[in-house]
Amino acid sequence: MVGYPFRTVATAGDGGHASNAATAAGGSGIADRGDKQSATTLEDAASKLNLSTDDYVAKARGAGWTEKTAFDYDQYNRAGGDSHNWAGSAKKYEWKDEYGDVGPEVPELEQLLFGGEFQMRKGAHYENLDIKVTVEGPKEIVPIRKFDDAGLHPVILRNVELCGYDDVTPIQSYAIPAILKGNDLVAIAETGSGKTAAYMIPTLSRLMGKARKLCAPKPNTADPMYNPRRDRVKAEPLVVIVVPTRELAMQIFDEARRMCYRSMLRPVAAYGGRPMGDTCDDLQAGCDILIATPGRLCDLMGKPHVLTMSRVKFTIIDEADEMLDQDWEEELKKIMAGGDSNEDADHQYMMFSATFPKGARKMARNYMSPEYYRIRVGGRAGQAHKNIRQEILHVDGDRKKEAVYDLLMASKPGRTLIFCNAKPAVDLMDDFLYNRGLPTTSIHSDRSQLEREDALRCFRTGKCPILIATGLSARGWDVKGIEHVIQVDLPSTMYGGINEYTHRIGRTGRIGHQGLATSFYNDRNEDLAQDLVNLLIESQCEVPDFLAHLKPEEGAKIDFDDDSDEEGEADQVAAGPGGEEDTGGVATDAAADGGAVAAGSGWGADTEGAGEGGFTADAGFHPAPAIAAW
Ligand SMILES: Nc1ncnc2c1ncn2[C@@H]1O[C@H](COP(=O)(O)OP(=O)(O)OP(=O)(O)O)[C@@H](O)[C@H]1O
What we know:
Blueprint: H1 21-25, H2 53-62, H3 74-79, H4 107-114, E1 133-137, H5 154-163, H6 170-181, E2 185-188, H7 195-208, H8 211-214, E3 239-242, H9 246-259, E4 267-270, H10 276-283, E5 289-292, H11 294-301, E6 314-318, H12 320-323, H13 329-337, E7 348-353, H14 358-367, E8 373-377, E9 388-394, H15 400-410, E10 415-419, H16 423-434, E11 440-443, H17 449-461, E12 466-469, E13 482-487, H18 497-505, E14 515-521, H19 526-538, E15 557-559, E16 572-574, E17 615-617
Helix pairs in contact: 5-7, 6-7, 7-9, 11-13
The structure holds adenosine-5'-triphosphate (ATP).
Adenosine-5'-triphosphate binds next to helix 7.
């Protein structure tokens, strides 16, 4: 059991060590800046009350929060993992050779994959998906306006329909035709803008017609005679998708399960924490699409009787700037070039992320063929989404717990993701809020895989609508209905800085939904202050009074410290509300009117090669009437 003693069934949160801390603190400590939205305007700040545990519980229920759930953490040790329903073992379409090219419908599975009430649907503010698109590459890309126009294989098109994807998002509009052309690709688009489907749909579609020819021999797992012990093969994936976290691997695996429905393409998730034996069993039942975390993938590459990379046709690196970070250098090198990987010219490489500092963009180029495409949606790599309202509150370090409590009690109850920077802080915050009757759960990297999967499941299903997490959860997570992200601690510039901030707040305000991101700021966050102010201005959010001195003068340019300004081309944005578009920089507003920006300006020095007979353009996004709502 991980060091978290306060939430076993026996103690059930009553009388936990922090039970009266809020009372003693005498209020939240949120500085009153006259902000109408802040919890400080509440006359009756809940943390000022001196209540018994039962009264705190009653108060939380009265505020509309659901009942809290006690966890028996010992059960995870007792179960030992064997009987656990691992997310990676979730049901998928199983194949029989006699199906021909397309398998029959399986209504129960279809319901499970596509009918889930927890699957995200696009929100009412879809038009706020940024529509300014910059494209560089060897040839012009004709964007698709509808999935119907993309020339997708009918099974994939049907799966897209079953997912409820009616319109293409801007990144899908450009990335799908680029991938269908067969070129390498680096794609940058805001959080929650549909990047997963942007690579999954065309990749699988390209394989569909040729699956029978390309796939390695596999057992007929749908056959009643199939025996997993006897009918083992070596996994020979055609597609490898690499992601930095286990949770993201499970999520992408879910998307792959949906998109592979009725196809003979078999997805497998391989991530740390899931028992190796279990993963190997799954791989040896056949694997065409492998979704993996880098460490587990490298381990598996060392088991040639289980996995060979010799058939891989597509290598996709999601959250690519994170994967290009020094921490992953060795693994990434091995994955991109090492082992027995297919080095044929038809091996296509892709990298996707919402943030892509200049240094990472340069490194990405080393892995791409010279004729690669670069697509960027939005003005600047790392821009926050306009559907996210960002608020910054001044909160001193010793008052943070009370401030979170007050904020939750003052907010409309809804799925809330709370970030702390350290694992002990996550445990303490969970304990504190839970003991005040709030339905919390928590996740961090010291928890066992079973605990992590359960915490996430409880959050997704709404059983525990408040999740406290470390930055582990910042990237890629796509949970339906996160209305509020609270950053108790801001990421320091040593640990991801403003890009990490953008990923964290990007867990809300996804795919046309609006969300609120509240962040606590104090003197310890001064290193991030200028970047934060720049981002607030860029996103047209209010800069609080205590940071107002960092605002540039009206109309002045803001330099984003984008890692490497060595060539003097930092990304720029016009300052002040309604800032003017400037051809030397990148405009903040969606270019629905086709406003021109200097070709490739936002890519800084990365434009090399594109000008030589290639195609370099700020494409804008000129919506066809049918999708003019963008
Ligand atoms: N065309 C579409 N129409 C409606 N919903 C879509 C469409 N494409 C994707 N989605 C949904 O949008 C949500 C966000 O997609 P996804 O997780 O791929 O975003 P992302 O751009 O990768 O975000 P992040 O940068 O945070 O990882 C998912 O729930 C996905 O199912």
